[in-house]
Backbone:
């Protein structure tokens, strides 16, 4: 049986953003697991729990999303998550606090040729 696609969504805020969760659903993830109130000290442990529990084949269908509102904190979390991985146990990890890195893509003007 093929492993299901899972995205773990960590957020230092009290609640994960419904926008981020909706985007994960629309992206096709089969299992979405939000974690709120995550501290810097917890990022490495959460990352390693996500990677080592699935084996090398399962990590290909596992992602980690870092949300929140603070860009600096999200970048620190991203750095810790990347450092917690050990090849071949590596997953896709992406930080986008408050849409800071994707909002410009959502609101671009059409080109003159459109």
Residues:
């Amino acid at each position: 049986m093929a492993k299901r696609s899972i995205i773990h969504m960590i957020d230092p805020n009290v609640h994960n953003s419904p926008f981020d969760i909706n985007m994960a659903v629309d992206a096709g993830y089969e299992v979405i697991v939000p974690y709120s109130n995550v501290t810097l000290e917890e990022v490495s442990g959460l990352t390693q729990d996500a990677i080592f529990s699935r084996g090398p084949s399962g990590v290909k269908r596992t992602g980690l999303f870092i949300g929140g509102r603070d860009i600096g904190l999200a970048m620190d979390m991203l750095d810790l998550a990347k450092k917690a991985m050990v090849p071949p146990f590596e997953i896709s990890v992406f930080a986008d606090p408050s849409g800071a890195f994707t909002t410009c893509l959502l609101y671009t003007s059409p080109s003159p040729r459109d």
About this structure: The helical segments are 18-26, 40-52, 55-58, 71-83, 103-106. Residues 40-52 form the longest helix (13 residues). The CA atoms of residues 30 and 60 lie 14 Å apart. Residues 6-99 form a domain with the Rossmann fold fold (CATH 3.40.50.10280).
